[in-house]
Specification:
three-stranded mixed β-sheet, 11 helices, mainly alpha
Length: 310
């Protein structure tokens, strides 16, 4: 049976309809996006070009920075462009593509953060076996699992939305095509689909967060056997990771672990975990990691020497 789609485009209301506010938002989000891409790609280049950053932790960090760049790029460019005009539209196909991209990269990041917590668990709780456990093939496989898991999560979400008939209003009170606003526009009963969204998006956020919390409880318990200096070093690394986890997972859980409905705060939370968190991740990790900062400084010095040598 063919699903009716009388709508060929959606009207996005964005964050504001006031021209003065939109101009401010354009400048703010443009600066944030450029800083996000620049900061995350700096980490990728630094890790891949520095032999001293060959540990699995930095391999995962480089992949997280790459994902953050992709995740931000699936949301920020259209938000920036839409800030220049009122009543912006997006085609049905573009809306589905944005939905898939945002949930794909978001799902990959959720799983990768859990993988990074496992890496810290092995490093702290099983330090003697760490090199034998966290081998290069295993690390590459875990990253592959994260990408595959994100794809399956997003593909399921897309299949759910493609089943919806759209034949009425086409105004989305959001700056991104997301699940709950689309469910409200569908001209059919979406109760079951809403439960499936909670089971998919909400469950992946909540279950991974619970696993992360459990791993950190085990880590904290294991740190009692460490010296004061060892505890400080371990807590510095784990503290940076847990800060990133809290910034990303808490808004995600609040957004999707609830009945299918749109709230005014949804746009603010989407800005937080979709725009601001990818910017904060490189700052949180680099400011608390001397090895990454020293490797980045050496990279800049090498580039300056090459420029002067030419």
């Amino acid at each position: 049976m063919e699903i009716p789609h009388n709508l060929t485009e959606f009207i996005m209301l964005g964050l504001s309809q006031q021209p003065e506010v939109q101009r401010v938002l354009f400048v703010v989000f443009l600066v944030i996006y450029l800083a996000t891409v620049g900061g995350n790609m700096l980490i990728v280049v630094t890790v891949t070009s520095s032999p001293i950053l060959a540990a699995p932790m930095y391999f995962f960090l480089a992949n997280l920075s790459l994902i953050d760049t992709c995740y931000s790029s699936s949301l920020a460019p259209k938000l920036i462009a839409d800030s220049l005009c009122q009543g912006t539209t997006i085609s049905y196909q573009g809306c589905m593509a944005q939905l898939f991209g945002a949930h794909f990269f978001g799902g990959v990041e959720i799983i990768l953060l859990t993988v990074m917590a496992y890496d810290r668990y092995v490093a702290i709780c099983k330090p003697l076996r760490y090199p034998a456990i966290m081998t290069q093939p295993l690390c590459a496989g875990l990253v592959g699992v994260a990408w595959l898991g994100g794809f399956l999560h997003s593909f399921i979400q897309l299949l759910l939305v493609l089943q919806l008939p759209f034949c009425g209003p086409n105004i989305i009170d959001h700056f991104v095509c997301d699940l709950y606003p689309l469910l409200e526009l569908a001209c059919t009963d979406t109760y079951v689909l809403g439960l499936l969204v909670v089971a998919n998006s909400g469950a992946i956020c909540l279950l991974n967060f619970l696993m992360l919390a459990a791993s950190y409880l085990v880590i904290l318990h294991s740190l009692r056997a460490y010296s004061a200096a060892g505890r400080r070093k371990a807590l510095s690394t784990c503290g940076a990771h847990f800060t990133v986890v809290a910034l990303f997972f808490v808004p995600c859980i609040l957004s999707y672990m609830r009945p299918a409905s749109t709230l005014s705060i949804d746009k603010n939370m989407a800005v937080f975990y979709g725009i601001l968190t990818p910017l904060l991740n490189p700052l949180i990790y680099t400011l608390r990691n001397e090895e990454v900062k020293s490797a980045a400084r050496r990279l800049f010095i090498q580039q300056d020497l090459q420029v002067w040598g030419e």
